[in-house]
Amino acid sequence: MIKKVRHYVLRDYRPSKALSDETEAAAADDKDKFENYVAFTDVLFHPGDGKLYCGVTAYNTDILHRFDMESKQFESLHYREISDPFEVKVHRSLELASDGTIYGATACLYSVDKRLQAPGGSLFRLGPGADHAEKFARPVDHDYIQTISLDEERQLIYGQTYPVFRFFVYDLASGETTDFGFMGSITHISAIDDDGCFWGTWDRVQHHLYKYDPSTKEITWFRHSIPNAREDSNRMYPGAGPVDCMINGGDGYIYIGTCGGSLCRLDPKTAEVRYLGKPAPTKRMPGLKVWKDSLLLGAGGDEEGGMLFSYDRETGAFHVLGSIRDSETGLKLYRVHDVCVVNDETAYVAETDVPGRSGYLWECELEI
């Protein structure tokens, strides 16, 4: 169960519209909004230094921060010094390598009339203990990177872009990019199976599954999707598919949280998808982590329905751990965007798209 919840403020602003209704151009006309309106989009725990790394949305391009869980203080990692004006967020794009390096990518909020003015999203790295990131590639022109997945064994970074939903593979060893172009669909975050194959969705109506095999460098195009794919699509933003989260469960399966708030299981050997259930009546399930061996920890909820749950893979049972509401103030988390777990005892949740204030970082103490 959730024992205690606290929220932490990086910067605060209280606009009249939700983040999704704004662009960086509109924000530039309001200096307070430009400097202070933020949302949390990524949370990554680094066991090497015991710190939390946060990707955020920020119109001023200060989009990468480190959070000290002891002092409860944020530290800017100075991305603003190397940014282009369109790099206003890190959106589900922080990955940790075994040597302690963090890899990331930059996303945008521009309207399509600005697309050809924008150079395109960057891949960056942050070395262990570093306080400045280094850009090392711009994989595709004009489009920005919504999500990446790191295959450290094969030295590959998989990426998906916005506003054109392209799929690319970047080779860290050679520096070469393979751009597969427009896929018609995008996942919030994808996963890599035990054979090193990357899974995503394609087709703008049906949002079918696909598998990319790096050993053959070919895509297998499946003609089926996850349950309720058409109904659960377009919830994140227009055109986006039904997959809110994918993780490799370490048991041979990929687990999928849907935008409708359901949990599914994908068998990579057969591409069969099994519906496992829906833990709560809320929409969205953008956060899943393997937790305490046989369990999954999930974070979901939308429009002040933020909650945590566990799923027992041995029994198939769901347990709602509680709603995400500040224990002292009663403030509710509005929309979950990501989750990470520290030492099985504390979950940190990223909050985004709040209509009335900036998004916050939420800390949930869990009862073991």
Task: Please explain how this structure is put together.
This protein is mainly β. It has 3 helices and 28 strands. The protein has helices spanning 24-28, 31-36, 229-232; strands at residues 2-8, 38-46, 51-58, 64-68, 73-76, 94-96, 102-105, 123-126, 134-137, 144-151, 156-162, 166-171, 177-182, 191-192, 198-202, 208-213, 218-221, 243-248, 254-258, 263-267, 272-277, 287-291, 295-300, 307-312, 318-323, 336-342, 346-351, 361-366. The chain is globular, with a radius of gyration of 19 Å.
Topology:
Layout: E1 2-8, H1 24-28, H2 31-36, E2 38-46, E3 51-58, E4 64-68, E5 73-76, E6 94-96, E7 102-105, E8 123-126, E9 134-137, E10 144-151, E11 156-162, E12 166-171, E13 177-182, E14 191-192, E15 198-202, E16 208-213, E17 218-221, H3 229-232, E18 243-248, E19 254-258, E20 263-267, E21 272-277, E22 287-291, E23 295-300, E24 307-312, E25 318-323, E26 336-342, E27 346-351, E28 361-366
Task: Summarize the structure in short.
It is built from 3 helices and 28 strands. With 368 residues, it is mainly beta.
Helix content: under 10%
What is the overall shape? Answer: globular
The count of strands amounts to: 28
Quickly count the helices. 3
Spatial order of strands in the largest sheet = 1-28-27-26
Which structural class matches the secondary elements? mainly beta
Distance between the termini: 8 Å
- Please give the largest β-sheet: 4 strands, antiparallel
Mean pLDDT: 95
**Rg estimate, integer Å:** 19 Å
Poorly predicted runs of 5 or more residues: none
Q: Which strand-content bin applies to the residues?
A: 35-45%
Oligomer: single chain
